[in-house]
Specification:
InterPro entries: AB_hydrolase_fold, CarbesteraseB. Pfam families: COesterase (PF00135). It comes from Cryptolaemus montrouzieri. Keywords: Glycoprotein. The chain has helices at residues 2-17, 74-93. The protein is mainly alpha-helical and 111 residues long. It has one domain. The model has no long low-confidence stretch (mean pLDDT 87).
Amino acid sequence: MSDQTINNGVLKHAELSSKFTNVFLYQFAYDGKMGHYEGFIKNAGRVGHIEDMNYIWRRNTASVNNLDLSLFPENDKMVQKRMLRLYTNFAKYLNPTPKKDPLFENIEWTP
């Protein structure tokens, strides 16, 4: 379903945009408690569209409440720290890992 409704359009947009500027894409595949939209597709067994946003923004909506981080597993909190660092680094340096960082086990991104 995602390929047809979302991914194909995103990839086509990236292809067209790449003729004029650098384009960067990522795939978020972490299946954690913080990311789930419980009412959307029950027991889907996979990560849904924009679940990564729940690790970046604090929200309290009908489908997501991640205001109290103590309610989530340590792995979710680690993923949230990593996502925030990746996003802020990319916004600041155009590189999600501008230097070696223990938070990422010293992995550096090479485009």
